[in-house]
Structure formats: C-alpha cells, structure tokens
Design goal:
This protein has about 60 residues and is of the alpha+beta class. The protein has two helices and three strands, in the order E-H-H-E-E. The protein has a single domain, classed as Nucleotidyltransferase, domain 5 (2-Layer Sandwich), CATH 3.30.420.
C-alpha cells in the first residue's frame, strides 16, 4: 500500500543515520525516490500542505 515519504525518511534515518540523498545526486529524498523509478508517487493535499506518498511499482509495464 501507500506510505508517507516523511515516515519512510524517518525510518531510513533511524536505520542508517549517515544516509544522504545528496550522495546520489538528489537534493531531497523525494527526488531520489522519483528518480530511481521503483516507486509510484502520489501527492495528497492534507490540511494546508501537500504530502508525498509512495508505493512499490507492480513491475508490469
């Protein structure tokens, strides 16, 4: 299912504190997630802000 990118980022930083998307050429984690092409992304309006949600692609193209 869908997961909030904020939650994913928190989990990554707890498991691998030295991880930095800039090491892979992306200023933000969202850019890295979109750039690698393994995930579908969906922007959702929540309150006054937009939040990015991701899920794995099903592999069927």
């Amino acid at each position: 299912g869908w997961a909030s990118l904020g939650t994913i980022g928190s989990i990554i930083s707890k498991q691998s504190p030295d991880f930095d998307s800039r090491n892979y050429g992306y200023a933000k984690l969202s850019g890295l997630i979109k750039g690698i092409g393994l995930f579908e992304t969906e922007e959702r309006q929540i309150g006054n802000g937009k939040h990015l949600y991701v899920r794995p692609r099903d592999g069927k193209k």
